[in-house]
Design a protein that fits this description.
The complex is a heterodimer of chains A (611) and B (350).
Chain A (H helix, E strand, L loop, with lengths): L7 E9 L4 H14 L4 E6 L8 E9 L10 E6 L5 H6 L1 E10 L14 E5 L1 H8 L3 H20 L3 H11 L4 H21 L18 E4 H11 L4 E4 L6 H14 L11 E4 L3 H13 L4 E5 L1 H17 L3 E7 L16 H5 L9 E3 L4 H18 L2 E7 H5 L1 E4 L18 H6 L30 E3 L13 H19 L6 E2 L8 E5 L3 H14 L5 E4 L2 E2 L3 H8 L3 E6 L5 H9 L7 E5 L8 H12 L13
Helix pairs in contact in A: 1-4, 1-5, 3-4, 4-6, 7-8, 7-12, 9-10, 16-19
Chain B lengths: L36 H15 L7 E5 L3 H4 L9 E4 L5 H11 L4 E7 H5 L3 H9 L4 E7 L2 E2 L5 E2 L22 H7 L4 E6 L3 H13 L3 E7 L15 H7 E3 L2 E5 L15 E4 L5 E5 L10 H13 L3 E8 L6 H5 L11 H4 L3 H10 L2
Parallel strand pairs in B: 1-2, 1-3, 3-4, 4-8, 7-8, 9-13
Antiparallel strand pairs in B: 5-6, 7-13, 10-12, 11-12
Helix pairs in contact in B: 1-7, 3-5, 6-9
Classes of the chains: A alpha/beta (611), B alpha/beta (350).
Chain lengths: 611, 350
């Protein structure tokens, strides 16, 4: 079929990490974005600094599907280590670009793949003298070659380089020289463009391209966070780095040069969350970011913050567990640990962003929620959302918006109060009034503790008083249900006996799977979860469907377990749809698993949905 | 301690500059054992704050877990307190201090809370020179779990049950000196005359001020053979000199008397007077302090008093260049860059 592959393919770059390939590959992806074509880049990198294989997948999708897709249409392999596997991962009829300075091992030649050799090393040795440049420009030469093969507009690449190297014209010129080397080589040696190629479209609109971690960092700046404490851990490190980089530009007093924020790199995750709790207790908005191992360590303090009712914001950029797991691969596998973090009866508020825009909004909102609910808010993002660039709706901010500082009494309110009770449920919603240290000389002080206490914060071992407090915490939990971000329903009313539930980065592929299955006549109702606790809408959705498929990225169906545990629903109708290999879930995987469940009579063979 | 506190107060109780009596600095009734050294330290903290005329609500009390960490409930009832989790007081204090640099942070911990589970946080809070007072009520044992040896128990010290501690102790004052603490003192709970001025000096010090206070556990570690008993400490104490704090700020000019005493001028103009300094003691010399401490230990003596002070010191806020205003007072106008800036950020991402 002619043109079937225009703006619809997957290209994979196979590089050695630490060789500067990431910025060249990003240049490639950004050029496609600038041509108005939806694009999803994904960096698949090792837990290592230099010398190991790393891949960069770019999916181009005219239909705007932003999830990962299996099958490589074009492989750019500049890593001899991974070459044997890379050849095998190319789809039949696809292309394999390699450095032909050295002859290809005949064993790697497949009859169903077209090979395009570029003498990258030879060209670099001839054209450049500096050893580092010889390495870096290899990457730019292949971007040039791709621009000829795939019809990337040269002016777009030129513009991107000019923006990247403002004031460094010499560097721009060298990059353009390298790019032209690639273009000329294709022009004189190969037929171009290929059948997989690009055509300018207007499908991007005002969207932006950014990673979720940067969006979280920016959201924290907008949301008024002033104290940040953290401990480095992949894949969350760039959240705080982004906060710092934005704060340096946006939060420094112009007159004094002093900072309207404080960042402390803690000695470990225990200290990081302790600092966040101390700062919030003292009336500053404060957050930390971590990943699974850090969340495990923070459990003790999360219990204190839950029980002593101290606002806390924690961004958990999930990676593949258990233990150290696969530190540079993605998963949604901290859900149960986060939901019930710490010993005793605890329940923690979770929010689930699925796009950079939501990372931005939910971080700012989490700072509000933490103070209005006086409890930890854990944002459950993941490596895929956090570290990869995503095409997203632009960020928005209403200048009239005020921070919701929750129920905090000031000095004059304390003056009028006959007696202050820190844990006294005055309003009947389970949320009590707090005071910030230093507010009033003789009123409003209290002793914050992780031990049981009465309504006036005095220590008690009276079981009835203890139970009364625990019940009030549950009342607060119920209040939270309608304050936290509501689930998103894809339909006004149920149209199908089957429902899909998903959240976070499973969303892209779940949406694509729905589209694909609808073409085969199989329609689903769908709901995207955005927070825990679940509200009535979630329970109703499950009740009104015969079968509900819960799509998530972990082995044990943790969200499914949480739904079953928290809601009055039958486990039998809750069907897990899981992916846990550390790679983002694909629409194909979702469809296969749903198909297997709905077509049991076919005994595992391909049904009509997949054909 | 008695469980009945008389409501009567002498009408002529002395008042401080704020017009407060010590009553405004009292806390709840202590539930520690009668004769506990910790209660004496609480009393000294109370007395120091009273004498310094600090408005109680300008102090935040922080602690970890253990007998010592319960004490913030028993002094400064008009101050906010935070009894956090075991060994983690320094991190909570760090966050609190970052949020509001204008309060005084009074951290109270024990030898278990600091020298074992909290060692990591103790070490790092010193390294950051957080502006706080850090008092360890050091009794060499775990009182709340009935007397197990702690990491500061001396090798050879005998427990109440007669077992001998085989492990070397961690010397917290020595460690603080080694780590670069800008104020290090050591004292004894039974010596209020020495402890109160030390606490006052620590409060006035503009950086991390550490006081290791030997505080006998009357119930589990006050037996013959224990090196943390009242009798043993009284017999082996060696004061490095008498300390006093002169809070007059602008009236006294810096003058260093020769002979037996010296005065240390703090950042805010307050003086610490060191009288009757032991021969050859130099409180401005870290090496000298470390040697003196080690030599005393070799003689089985406990060196007390102000061991070391660094008057020109820069705390964490200075290091990270944070604003002079308390961060917890900043509002949307200070913090939120607004929609116009956001539109520019969006544009850069296209």
């Amino acid at each position: 079929m002619p043109n079937s592959k225009v703006n619809d393919f997957v290209i994979r770059f196979a590089n050695v990490n630490g060789t500067g390939s990431a910025s060249a590959n990003y240049l490639f992806a950004k050029a496609i974005f600038r041509m108005g074509i939806p694009v999803t880049p994904k960096n698949i990198f090792p837990s290592n600094i230099q010398g190991l294989p790393t891949w960069y997948d770019v999916r181009v999708s005219e239909k705007g599907y932003l999830g990962r897709r299996e099958g490589v249409d074009l492989m750019v392999c500049v890593n001899p280590q991974s070459m044997p596997d890379d050849v095998l991962s190319v789809k039949s009829g696809g292309y394999f670009i390699y450095d032909c300075t050295k002859a290809l091992n005949p064993a790697l030649i497949r009859p169903d793949v077209t090979y395009i050799g570029l003498p990258l090393m030879e060209m670099c040795l001839r054209e450049f003298t500096d050893p580092r440049q010889r390495q870096l420009f290899k990457n730019i030469i292949y971007v040039g070659a791709l621009s000829a093969l795939l019809d990337i507009e040269f002016s777009v690449l030129e513009q991107l380089l000019a923006e990247q190297f403002v004031g460094k014209e010499k560097l721009v010129a060298m990059n353009i020289k390298a790019m032209n080397l690639g273009i000329e080589y294709i022009h004189s040696n190969y037929a171009y463009p290929l059948d997989i190629r690009l055509e300018r479209r207007d499908l991007v609109g005002d969207k932006i391209l950014i990673d979720g971690n940067s969006a979280c960092g920016l959201g924290a700046v907008y949301g008024g966070a002033t104290v940040v404490a953290w401990y480095p851990i992949t894949p969350s490190t760039s959240v705080v780095e982004a906060f710092e980089s934005y704060a340096k530009k946006l939060r420094v007093d112009k007159e004094t040069g002093k900072r309207n924020y404080a960042i402390v790199q803690a000695e470990d995750e225990l200290a990081a969350i302790g600092m966040v709790i101390g700062a919030n207790w003292n009336g500053a908005r404060s957050f930390t970011a971590t990943s699974g191992p850090g969340l495990s360590l923070m459990n003790e303090f999360l219990g204190l913050a839950y029980f002593a009712e101290i606002p806390t914001v924690l961004i958990d950029v999930q990676r593949t567990g258990p233990s150290t797991g696969m530190p540079t691969r993605t998963q949604q596998s901290d859900i149960l640990l986060a939901a019930y973090a710490s010993h005793g009866d605890t329940k923690q508020v979770l929010v689930f962003p699925s796009t950079p825009k939501e990372c931005f909004e939910m971080t700012a909102e989490a700072l509000d929620l933490a103070e209005s609910l006086q409890t930890p808010i854990i944002m459950m993002t993941d490596l895929d959302l956090g570290m990869n660039d995503h095409m997203s709706e632009p960020f928005q901010w209403d200048d009239a918006r005020k921070y919701d500082r929750g129920k905090v009494l000031n000095a004059s309110q304390l003056e009028e109060l006959p007696r202050f009770g820190r844990y006294l449920d005055v309003d009947g919603d389970g949320i009590t009034y707090r005071t910030i240290p230093g507010t009033h000389p003789t009123k409003g002080s209290f002793f914050t503790r992780g031990t049981s206490r009465d309504e006036y914060a005095a220590y008690t071992e009276d079981g009835r008083v203890y139970a009364r407090n625990m019940d009030r915490l549950l009342k607060k939990w119920n209040t939270a249900k309608d304050i936290v971000p509501a689930p998103y329903l894809y339909q006004k009313e149920s149209k199908s006996p089957y429902g899909l539930i998903f959240f976070g980065t499973s969303t892209y592929s779940a949406e694509e799977a729905m589209d694909t299955m609808a073409v085969s006549g199989l329609n689903f109702d769908a709901m995207r979860l955005r927070a825990f606790p679940f509200n009535q809408t979630v329970e109703d959705f499950i009740h009104t469907h015969e079968k509900v498929f819960i799509i998530e990225q972990n082995r044990d169906g943790q969200m499914r377990s949480l739904l079953i545990n928290e809601l009055n629903v039958s486990p039998q109708k809750m069907i897990p749809v899981l992916n846990f290999d550390g790679m983002p879930i694909t629409a194909h995987a979702i469809i296969s698993l749903i198909d297997k469940n709905l077509s049991p009579t076919l005994n595992g063979s391909t049904s009509k949905i997949l054909s | 301690m008695t469980y009945i506190r008389p409501k009567f107060r002498h009408p002529d109780l002395p008042k401080n500059d704020l017009g407060y009596t010590t009553r405004e600095y009292e806390g709840s009734l202590s539930t520690l054992c009668a004769g506990c050294g910790h209660d004496s330290i609480s009393g000294s903290i109370l007395q120091a704050c009273f004498e310094l005329s600090i408005p109680p609500h300008r102090i935040a009390k922080l602690s970890g877990i253990g007998c010592s960490s319960k004490t913030p409930n028993y002094f400064l009832g008009n101050s906010h307190g935070f009894n956090s989790v075991h060994g983690r007081m320094p991190s909570v204090a760090t966050g609190a201090n970052m949020a509001n640099r204008d309060l005084i942070y009074m951290g109270v911990s024990g030898d278990g809370d600091t020298a074992s589970i909290g060692m990591g946080q103790f070490v790092h809070v010193i390294r950051r020179n957080l502006n706080m007072v850090y008092i360890v009520m050091n009794n060499g044992c775990y009182g709340l779990t009935k007397g197990q040896d702690s990491a500061t128990a001396d090798a050879g010290s005998k427990s109440k049950a007669g077992s001998v501690n085989p492990f070397q102790p961690i010397d917290l004052a020595g460690l603080a000196l080694e780590l670069g603490a800008s104020f290090v003192a050591q004292s004894f709970s039974g010596d209020k005359e020495q402890l109160v001025p030390l606490i006052k000096a620590a409060v006035s010090h503009p950086g991390f001020a550490f006081i290791n206070v030997i505080s006998p556990c009357v119930t589990f570690n006050n037996n013959p053979g224990s090196t943390k008993s009242y009798d043993y400490v009284r017999e082996h104490i060696e004061a490095t000199g008498k300390t006093d704090l002169v809070p007059e700020k602008s009236e006294i000019l810096a003058s260093y008397e020769s002979g037996t005493g010296t005065e240390v001028m703090l950042h805010d103009g307050t003086f610490i007077k060191l009288e009757k300094l032991a021969a050859n003691r130099d409180p401005f010399n870290r090496m000298d302090a470390m040697n003196a401490l080690r030599n005393a230990r070799n003689r089985n003596e406990i060196l007390t008093g102000l061991l070391y002070i660094e008057t020109e010191t820069e705390d964490l806020h200075h290091t990270i260049n944070s604003t002079d205003r308390p961060l917890n007072t900043l509002d949307e106008a200070d913090l939120c860059p607004g929609s116009a800036v956001l539109a520019e950020i969006n544009e850069d991402l296209r």
